[in-house]
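Hello K.,

You asked for the raw outputs rather than the summary table, so here they are, unedited. I folded two proteins back to back in the same session to keep the settings identical. This is the first:
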Amino acid sequence: MTRAEEQLDEVLSMVGTVLAGRYRLDALIGEGGMGAVFRGHHILLKRDVAIKILHPEIKGGSELSRRFDREAQSAARLEHVNCIHVTEYGSTDAGMKYMVMPLLDGRELQDKYRTALPPGRAVELVLQVIRGLEHAHGRGVIHRDLKPQNIFVTTGPDGDDVLKIVDFGIAKMVNEEDVRDDTKTKAGLVFGTPLYMSPEQALGLEVDARADLYSVGVILYEMLAGTVPFRNNDPVALIRMQVSSDPPALPERVPSELAAIVYRLMMKDRDDRFPDATTVRKVLEGFLASYRQRVGDDDDFILDDEPIPGISAAPTVAPGALHRADIHRASTDALNPRPPTAFDTVVYHSGRPWMWFFIIVLLLGGGAAGYWFYGRQYYPPEKLLALFGLKPAGDDAGDETGGDGSEPSDTGPGPGGGTAGPTSEELSELDREIVARAYDEALTLLKPLRERYPENTDLLWREARLLSQRKGQKSEALALYAEAMRIDPGMATNLGFFAELDKLLRYRALRDQAIEVTLEHLGERGHDLLVTFINDDKKIPPYELRHRVIDALNADAELAAKIEVRANLVRDFDQYAESMTPCASFVKLMLDLRTRVDEELVDEDFKQRLNAEALVLPKLTEGAPPEEVSACTEVPGALDATRAALLEKFPDKTKTKTKKTKKKKSTKSKKKKKR
């Protein structure tokens, strides 16, 4: 009998035993090189669970043992519908490690869906993964091995698919003092699956949450195209592709807006990806809402041929091509403890420095060559543009190029929403330089085109992107983004355009300009930004601009609740004298304080400010408008009324104490006189 057969017999012999005094092992679900998974039953709580155990012969200090520990510690932190949750973790008296989880019934994602999905369906599924990651990242857990095999599809109470992220065996935990260094991956070691691995992870660099976002991009790409972007039997060649190769263009049937999201998720430089899972969730939800307006609840067909912003292609799968299984079989793989793969053994092993040195040299050399080759070679215009979220020439309604690349007429709407516009060949030549990051060459090509077509939004957008990369020119870039939206308000609904603009708007040095652009052009899409602006305590906007933001947010009760009221009352104190109407601003502040005097937002600090000798009351200025003249007459009365309200709420304890002391003294003196 082989050792594997002996091990299986040992595991099977555990069926029927009680683990840790409360978990009865009812059946073996799966067994692997690390351990086994049982269907168990909690004797006291009367419920079925899944129990993963580690083979006893695996030593406590080994990497496999530490991986088991990390999985338990990571998953125990998570309590989200889209993440597996470890309810208990420990060791038996005999030293056997185990963890307890909910018993899942379903399939791995790769088994559930084996063909390309319609765009709406793919986004619905990936949104569940993103929500799970948003929860995990918020608790300092980075998965680092996200792939379809680690996403489990179960059935919810309403019959819908519910996705759960599983197998946190190589997860990284951050920002925790109680996590020792040996739970973190040191630079120079590689963990993960090459098909879905981020470039920085492939190079053995320190990773953050954006590595998981890259993996999500690969998964979404696979859902839409029916295949992963990079495939090679040689793991080293596969890693080199992740580091240096751009993904092949998605099929034309994928909406260009969705393609732009996928390409940004898969950017080689993590700084060029979306900053966090929350942003990805919001962008995908925005796309899905727009897409559903187009195709309804079922995206197996297009309702009509009328184009709307953000949608430019038919769905991926023909009607009836997607069939769901009626019966969900129990999966053994998603929860099964996995031993290291051959790739783990050769590439990850820290005991082979010569091998790792060779791979790093190969990767870096291939990366440099790949950057030059892929950055400079010719790409189809639609791919070049989609890589950076740019709209393909001819996408907009009214394009007169006819799709043949010929020069548009000198009158009438052009491809970018202005009067006339450049040909697709001219845009392609320009975009090749942008992809190669040859910004000076790109600006040289752009200048004559901008002179010919000064109001073409495609060119405005490209120039804004180029300027945003140059030191000291971000303000000019923001002005160009605003100009593009002035010419074509629909630009703000383009997710690629909005993603670039959003990144620029968050520079503190551009705060006042960013608020103006957000208020004027973005509408509801800018609400989250406005909340950020108004609550930022490091760069505070001027009084009038700040109150324009407050007024915009107060129109929505949910948004108004996000405003840090006390902080803004303090800012009003500091800024009323600098406002355009200081008397009116002061009177409004006094009214706000009296209105909120019963709330915890107003405290004794405000009373001290009002009673301070340094308090300077606003005065009437020459040429003031009638409303300001009237407000200046109200200043003394408003101040007195607010002082009285605050004194009533916060009585002067010092004066009260002093009076009592005086009374005691007078009583003593009277006694002395009687004597």
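The second followed immediately with the same parameters:
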Amino acid sequence: MATIPAAADAATWFGHPRQLARLFSTELWERFGFYGLRALLVLYLTKHFVFGDRVAGGMYGAMLSMTYLTPFIGGIMADRFLGSKRAVKFGAIIMAVGYFVLCFGGEAAKPTATFDGVTHAVSIEQHGGVEQRFVVASGQRLLIHGNDDGSVALMNGGTTVRTLAKDAFTGDATRSPLYVAIMLAALSAIVVGNGFFKPNISTMVGALYAPGDRRRDAGFTIFYMGINLGSLGSQLLCPVLADTFGWWAGFGLAAAGMLVAWSLIQFDGGRLAGYGEPPASAATKDRAPLIYVLAVLATALPWLLFSNTITATAAPAGAGIVAYLLALPILGKLLFATFLIGVPAILVWSWRAGSRTEFEMMLAAMILIVFNVTFWTLFEQAGSSLTLFADRNTDLSIFGLFTITAGQTQFFNAIFIVLLAPVFAAMWAALARRGAEPGIPVKFAIALIGVGAGFLFLVWGTHYAGPDFKVAIWWLAGLYLIHSMAELCISPVGLSMITKLSIARVVGMMMGMWFLSISVAEYVGGIVAQGASVDTVGGQVTNLKLSLDTYAGVFQTIGFWAVVIGGILLAGSFLLKRLMHGVD
């Protein structure tokens, strides 16, 4: 273990070690970059590279799922060889490089339409402030118009020349393989860099406090507020720059934020001396250069997984669950296999190696982990299907004064968390004083019901869509308000729950299962977003009514089942409470 100086320090920051301010700022700027990417990624894939919704949703899910897997490796490298400080700096540099590489997206993909076995170029034109798609076929310039039943009409001067069945018309694009490869390399660098940065910045915060220091939990609360402040800023600014100047500007701002995070650690003026230093064994043989080289080479693995996600072909409808699982991309197979084998295997081990009480507590933890997958699967629609819904079927005008972009709608979650977190903290404290604070299973159940209720609220709003098949932005804001309150019921208690319920000698492994569950949820969230896919031509839907109906149908289904699942957990919460043996 690295030598850690005494936490007692004469100079404090809000009653905490002054180094917390620097680590808080570092996390803020790193999250500024990451959430800037999150706000832009699906829109970038569907508009610049003109990928269909299915590919974009799969890529988004793969990206976020891998960001929850790589920290396991990054944490080991820091503990054994690098030390947290060097790992954080290296991760920041790799991530900044990834963001900068995204700035070089090259020429936008050229949309195409294929029917009758022939691929035609598609032109995009503005008419009355509305984008329209045209294709030249049989010597005629024809407007592409989607029908309510999913078929496509080719029109000339208001007259339908041909009607093509849904399966007889395919929208795609001609895109540069080189620029696609560069984009995948950038995302891969961000995934690897995140693995070094994310776990080790938190480790440095923990090192500020001596064992038993009661300020630790409050210090982490302050530290994690930096996440929400950083995401709030980037989700407002990056989409504006991307919309005004081009994608390069949005990604460039994210890269600048990442460089600020790196500089705060690199040029700390000695303020972080003694924190996050390499282990003593590294003094005799420093393996850092080798690790850096291997980490750069390791970006090839996520690159291959991303490529496989793009090229994977879905199983035919009605083929069955086995055929569906076999058709999943490699990443999906690995995640599901690990999770489905790992959960029962750990329970079998705990039944054999632990006491009955320990086994029951582990069983309660595993049950809550499974429910955790459901919550984050639906919550993470924010960056995928909900962003596309905002782009296509939401009136983004604010009181008629100005208009925000689709990517900016994600800031609602961040601002609600910043505003509501102190309220919820005070509410839980007040309930605790009265002995009425809900237990962990009840909070999980409330969160699941809440995330479902948010989707049902938005579905209600679709009944009030205007003649342009767009809902007022306040319906989307209402969804984010409900989702933010649900998040505050589950997010703060998850990690604490794992440490309290796990058998002491496998706490680390159970932490790994917790993050694996979130990784699985992020991936499944991409699958759910694929279920809300709408056929597009040149990155845009050709029938907004069909788009609205599709989103409303999917959101109603997942909202209903989330409420049902949350209700089941609520009904069984007293049984879980017994299994937890007083842990709360």
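Confidence is low (pLDDT under 50) at residues 1-10.

Happy to rerun anything if the numbers look odd on your end.

Regards,
P.
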